[in-house]
Amino acid sequence: MDLSDKLAVVTGGSGDIGRAICQALAAAGAEVIVTYVGDLERANASAARVREAGRKASVLQLDQRDEASIDAAAAAVAEHGRCDVLVNNAAWNIGIPFRELESLDSSTWDRVQETNLRGPYLLTRALAGLLTAGGGGRVVNIASVGGLYPASSSIAYSCSKAALIHLTHCLAVAMSPEVTVNCVAPGLVEGTRMAARLPDAVSEGARRGALLGQVGNPIDIANATVMLCQADSITGQTVVVDGGNPAAMNFG
Questions:
Q1: Among 32, 192, 208, 219, fewest CB within 10 Å belongs to which?
Q2: Chosen CATH of 7-248 out of 3.30.300.20, 3.30.420.10, 2.40.50.100, 3.40.50.720
Q3: Active-site residue numbers?
């Protein structure tokens, strides 16, 4: 799909990876709606990067844990008359080592699942009509290598991302042939707020395991996202961006 003049919605566009995705989509010709949950200043900064690339941008508040907020955001997108691309990038994590089962309480579990899994499903469902119209659209879910093997910020996070990857498979079936649904699974991404919450042992393991001597970065994640949006014959797939850790190679 040619992204020129297409409309893309990027959730969590105020974050580090989200901003890179917004910029890459704009460079490919898309207009971008940047969603944010609380940091309007950072969302505006991401929108400014899109405008610097010569494309239109707007910001939209969205709390993925709140179904009413999801419905309101979908209604706001519908006012544009189209939605060609949805990037489910917004997520939440907290650093709880796997062995500390007592520390992972039900409220933390629920917050992670509601943000990282339930929210992307409900938003995709809410925008499905727009994505299907106009010759078809694209959905790209941003997961994690923590959803492919048991190492991440927490058990809850790994489970949410594993489920998001399988949701990608299920939605690829449900939304075919009009919409392709794919996934990008980053590993450690240095310098991001999400990476700062990782237990030290997990971060060190990711660095040691990277065959390329470097872990993933936002630009490569963004470029993989754009590639999946442009591709016409790829659906239900997961692209791993982690510097080449063998632990994820059987799954990519």
A1: 208
A2: 3.40.50.720
A3: 157
* pTM of the shown model: 0.93
Task: Compute the Cα dihedral for 152, 153, 159, 160 and give only its sign.
Answer: negative
> What SS3 state is found at 67?
helix
- Predicted confidence at residue 198, as pLDDT, reads 67
Q: What is the four-CA torsion angle of 109, 201, 90, 165, rounded to 10 degrees?
A: -80
- Tell me the domain boundaries of the chain: 7-248
**pLDDT digits over 133-191, tens only?**
978 899 999 999 999 999 888 999 999 999 999 999 999 999 999 999 999 999 878 66
Q: Which two tokens stand for residue 38?
A: 């609380």
- Token pair 């207009």 is at which residue? 31
